[in-house]
Amino acid sequence: MNTHGLTDDQKDIRSLAARFADEVVAPQAxxxxxxxxxxxxxxxxxxxxxxxxxxxxxxxxxxxADFLTYALVIEELSRGDAGLGVTLAVHTGAGTLxxxxxxxxxxxxxxxxxxxQGHELAAFALTESNAGSDAGALTTSADNGCLTGMKQWVTNxxxxxxFIVFAKDPxxxxxxxxxxxxxxxxxxxxxxKLGLNSSSTADLQLQxxxxxxxxxxGAGLRIALATLDGGRIAIAAQATGIAxxxxxxxxxxxxxxxxxxxxxxxxxxxxxxxxxxxxxIEAARxxxxxxxxxxxxxxxxxxxxxxxxxxxSSIARRVTGEAIQVLGGYGYTRELPAERxxxxxxxxxxxxxxxxxxxxxxxxxxxxEAARE
Amino acid sequence: xxxxxLVKEVPDAAVEKRINxxxxxxxxxxxxxxxxxxxxxIEAAMQVKEGGAVDVEEIIAVTMxxxxxxxxxxxxxxxxxxxxxxxxxxxxxxSDVVATGYALxxxxxxxxxxxxxxxxxxxxxxxxxxxxxxxxxxxMPSLTQVIKMDxxxxxxxxxxxxxxGYDTVEIELPAVISVGDAINEPRYPSLKAIMxxxxxxxxxxxxxDVGLEADRVGEAGSKVVCGDFKAPPQKxxxxxxxxxxxxxxxxxxxxxxxxxxLLA
Lengths: 373, 264
Fold this sequence. Notes:
The complex is a heterodimer.
Chain A: H1 8-35, H2 40-49, H3 67-80, H4 82-102, H5 105-116, E1 122-125, E2 141-143, E3 146-155, E4 162-168, E5 173-179, E6 185-190, E7 201-210, E8 212-214, H6 220-256, E9 258-259, E10 262-263, H7 268-296, H8 302-327, H9 329-332, H10 338-346, H11 355-367
Chain B: E1 2-6, E2 9-11, E3 19-20, E4 25-26, E5 32-34, H1 36-51, E6 58-64, H2 70-78, E7 83-87, H3 97-111, E8 115-119, H4 130-138, E9 142-152, E10 155-162, E11 165-172, E12 175-179, H5 191-196, E13 202-205, H6 246-259
Parallel strand pairs in B: 1-6, 1-8, 6-7, 7-13, 8-12, 9-12
Antiparallel strand pairs in B: 2-5, 3-4, 9-10, 10-11
Helix pairs in contact in B: 3-4
């Protein structure tokens, strides 16, 4: 990986995350995956190191680094375990940053420091059985400051303390903050998934649950979309990290595995694969960094974030498949992590907006009115 | 008690090290990092400070090197040092181990530490000797490959790794201790420490500030002459024994060892 153009702080924080991923996360990831276990103690360690509030201002208990640094951390941790990567991405990007951006001063000062220090975890509850990217179709409703409805596939759903919940208020969606333990609030089902088994994905039930509004009434859609703009950059970083892990194991295997009297890396068929994989990863990383830098500069980054996520997720799926191909039979077994990378990669084409939605975002910017029927 | 930790900026472990044939010095153009062996010395200092057996007022990271070496000091501070001293001067370029040891000793004299710690080797020059040279100039006792330290006010009990086992040595402070990498597992720096490292005091000094005699350092003040560089000879290819049937594999290994009279 070429770190040219990163600041000293960015390099140092990236190498901290890389070391933590190599020494603490990766050696346990296979076990977490097998047991479907959320690594609470590791999340706590991330908090102690300051990794749960990378891009949160220091005055609010965060590290005060920029968004690109946060993306670097997501990539490195996801290289160790993509489930941990999404736990952190949702906690910070989707759970903490919207409070900083839209909360009142009182809300920010009360809610953010425990999140930034990792004492509490945050979640983002937008999706319902019939509403996701189509956020206008929500059925969860607000009445007199209380929410009623069902939310689906909420990352960190069973483990979070603070939830950003979207509900009709009364006609247009507003954002709300709900605390775990509030009246009528219950994570009802932990979802069994193809991958990301070390992360929690739960359905939530809200029955007359007291909530505080975040931002203006009716601003929910805008808040959700702005959150997703940044969230996509983090998912692009996650996808890049998964792909890098897959390339690393493929390269290692290509050096060690011998066929016909030489390492398989000496066969051109394998060399060509590995060269393509690395090139695609570097391109995904470049798109991700570009989008993160635009966000840091307060410039529009909706299209760039969509492009980064669209590309990084697609190459993550391809590269993880190719890694299995390089490993052959070994890649298909659960004794090596290649198959886990493959399972983990797929969801990056789905959540925080599917690849189809990313293309829609890109095409609409390209075509303007002509893209609409 | 005051602890000084000697640190060095070296080419990053991922960079292939090369000698520039025209200057005879290492090419330092690529990515650089804090010498990984020195992180064990910083950690050892932190453990003395946190251990509570003695009262440590401050831990000072000291380096000699070009302007870029500031990065190594920032890293040392992010790992726990309270402040740092950077000796940098064009006149120092090309110093050999003795000249470097002399220069570092002059900086240390100004700090008058009770304990000087450093890593067992640098990841570039790999001389393993700078601690002893510094100690000689400072007229302090010196130990190498220390893997355990018990500090009491005024004295130090160390266990050091030797070829034949372990030595337990008790010495008086002040002393210069080079620590083996088995002494500890360096901690992770927190993000706060990384972001705050640049704000900690950094004292930049030149040769005039520490009373260095210019003719004892740099290329002119160094007696070591390097030249006639050669790449190390290629190793012969090893023999790979594929493990298809473990009983057979063991037999093959034993036969191989027996052929070379390596079995008693």
